[in-house]
Amino acid sequence: MSRIEILGVSFDNVTMDEAVSAAMGIIAEGKRGYVVTPNPEIVMAARENPDLARAVGDASLVLPDGIGVIYGAKILGTPLKEKTPGIDFAARVMERLADRQGSVFLFGAKPGVAEQAGENLREKFPGLVIAGTADGYFDDDTPIIEQINAAKPDLLLVCLGSPKQELWMHQHAGQVQAGLMAGLGGSLDVFAGVVQRAPERWQKLGLEWLYRLLKEPKRIGRMMKLPQFALCAVKERVTGK
Ligand code: UDP
Questions:
Q1: Hey, which of 43, 129, 154, 212 would disulfide with 102, CB 3.0 to 4.6 Å?
Q2: What is the percentage of the chain residues whose pLDDT exceeds 70?
């Protein structure tokens, strides 16, 4: 698997199928590790936050979350195979785990959300074991790590938003007994049905970000990182730095 660097973040150049196979391989071989799914906002944040850059750099799998990174890669003249949204990646891995009664632990989001997500996922992927849940608003994570280690899930979804989730996975990688961890932002809200994803047509057109912005206009501040990201990519292509 080759990696392609986009403005300081090295992404795995993989299709969704390859990403899912790689994840299943890590779980099967007991290698442990974690997956990050940076979007342009996270790439830009990592340029200013060395801890985040390190957390992203040490991940076993670095997947381009959205269309923005794919465009950035094109602008830079080093195209990536395809976008691999974290939420779709996680669903595909859970589908595979369900086939062999594998387990997932859901960590993050507001109280009650992970439980609801668990119920929905169990229904969607019969056979999938929900090994435990914990919300993402804690003062002390020691009991949560104990709970995870008692359950030893194949997959741990860490949905604390960025950069919290990347820093958490990096900090606890040696301590958490899960086959694979994945930092997935607001995915539990979507699995729980608390937040709706863009309709498939919007996703196919690469307009999921616009749909989210229309639904949650307060995201505009965060999304202003997008044009900055594109400008940086153009600058690097033109000047070579
Ligand atoms: N969150 C959390 N703990 C925190 C801060 C955020 O569990 O201390 C959760 C929040 O409830 C939401 C997710 O992290 O479910 C972040 O969602 P957001 O939409 O910001 O993430 P994105 O998908 O855009 O990265």
A1: 154
A2: 100
Nearest-CA residue for ligand 1 atom 16 is 161
Cα separation, 192 vs 15, whole angstroms: 27
| pTM for this model (two decimals) | 0.95
Q: How far apart are CA 124 and CA 103, in angstroms?
A: 14
Pocket flag, ligand 1, residue 72 (CB < 6 Å): no
Specify the residue for token string 């929900």: 130
Cα(168)–Cα(240) distance, rounded to whole angstroms? 34
Give nearest CA residue, ligand 1 atom 19: 186
Closest protein CA for atom 25 of ligand 1:
185
Going from the Cα of 32 to the center of ligand 1, the distance in angstroms, rounded, reads: 24
- Report the SS3 class of residue 11: strand
Strand-pairing partners, residue 10, are 5
